[in-house]
Design brief:
Protein L; mainly beta; globular; 75 residues
Length: 75
């Protein structure tokens, strides 16, 4: 889980970008911190770059496929 100390440096917004799921090896739509929906692992990715490949880390069958969700973005 992403955490922070100084609330004056972050703000909550309701943007559809946070609802979008990004798949391994696809183009990163927004720069920021992404969280794997299956296992909770977090990564930093830059817009226009490529998400890590499917073999970046392994999941159990119960965790399902690797799926990334934006959790913190830079304006």
């Amino acid at each position: 889980m992403a955490t922070f100390k100084y609330p004056q440096f972050v703000k909550q917004i309701n943007h559809a970008a946070f609802d979008q799921i990004t798949h391994p090896a696809s183009t990163v739509p927004y720069s920021g911190i992404y969280r794997c929906e299956g296992c909770g692992r977090e990564i930093v990715s830059t817009q226009g770059h490529t998400m890590p490949p499917q073999n970046h880390h392994q999941h159990t069958v119960a965790q399902g496929a690797i799926r990334w969700r934006l959790i913190v973005a830079h304006e």
